[in-house]
Structure formats: structure tokens, C-alpha cells
Amino acid sequence: MQQVAALESSVLVLNKFFMALHVVSAKRAFALLCKETAEVISIDDGKFSSYNFENWKDVSLYKAKSGLPEEDNVSWIRTVSFEIEVPKIIRLLFYDKLPQSSVKFNRRNIFARDENKCQYCGQRFPTSELSLDHIVPKTYHGKTTWTNIVCACTECNKKKGGRTPEQAGMRLKRKPVKPKHSPILSLKLRSDKYRSWKQFLDEAYWSVPLK
């Protein structure tokens, strides 16, 4: 289970010019490193270092054999032949396109915006136990937009049915809005684990105090 969790760890992806693009899983990050289309960016004592996959394996091996206590918020992948630390940041060596100026409207970003909380009962659920609800149903010409879609748990979704919240006697916990910045990045930055991402993001992302 730890290995699976480590492979699903979040890794910030930068473009060739060190500008933040998006977040991928560690599994995807390692695939890019193995293809030699990306490098690891490590920040130690305020200094930047870059490593290709083989060099990062050597660095990880040194850390593993140093006998020092493992750092907090660091994930490891352990195979039969070697151990390797999951990087927190990678840089694409040949991708020079600029970050998107608007946030993509998709399920992943809606779950992140609503913090995996049902917007009717306020409880947090695994993504698999949440659905996306049209506040104003499609039967009433409700649109599929940031301001009309929210997360809803199974029970609340059943209770609301094909009605508006008012008709169902329900109230939203907060008014849905279109996020100005990636909700996934904003959510991750609340954790100390991703402090190193700050240096590559606009201050608006991390103005909220870390939890």
C-alpha cells in the first residue's frame, strides 16, 4: 500500500523556463524521467540542483545508505534492485509552451475546488463516493459551468433529485465560483510537503496560510 501511495504522490511539472504547468503523479513523473524528457529539480538550502534519472538514483542511494533519519514528507519507491526518492518537482527539458492562463473545467479541478466536500451536507468523501450535481438541473436549462456544478455525495444527490436546492429544501455550503488559479495547486500548497513549489508559483497561489 505504501508503494501505491508513493506512486500516486504529487509532482509539480515545470516547463523549460522553470514555469509551473501542472501536477502529475509520481508514476507519470518517473516515466518522463526514464524517457529523458525531464529532469529532477531539487532545492537544498535554497540552492537549485538538477538531476537526470540515473543521477537521481545515485543521490537517493546515498541518502538511503547515510544512516540518517528519513526526512518528513518524503516518499520512497523501493524495488528489488534499488531505492529511489520521489521527486517533488521535475522540469520538462524540451517543452517551451507557457502555462495556460485559465483553469480547465474538468472533474478533477471541480473536486479540488470543493475540497472533496459535498456542497450540501459539508462532509468530505473519497472521489469515488462523490458525483457532480447541476445546481439548476438540465431539465430547467441549467448549464454545465463552474457556477452551476458542485460536488455532491450519494445521499444528498438522491435527496435533491432533479430539483433545484430551493425545491428540495436544501442549501449550498458556499456559492460555487470559477477559480482564478489551479485549485489542485492551491490545495496542495496547504501542506508543508509542497513548500518547495512556492518558488515557482505566483504569490496568489500560496497567500493562504499553510495548515
UniProtKB/TrEMBL annotation:
Lineage: Bacteria, Pseudomonadati, Planctomycetota, Candidatus Brocadiia, Candidatus Brocadiales
UniProt keyword annotations, A-Z: Endonuclease, Hydrolase, Nuclease
Limits of the HNH nuclease domain: 105-158
Keyword presence, Hydrolase: yes
CDD domains documented for this protein: HNHc (cd00085)
Alphabetical list of InterPro entries matching this protein: HNH_5, HNH_nuc, NA-targeting_endonuclease
GO MF terms held by the record: endonuclease activity
Gene3D superfamilies, per the entry: 1.10.30.50
Stated name of the protein: Endonuclease
Keyword Chloroplast in record: no
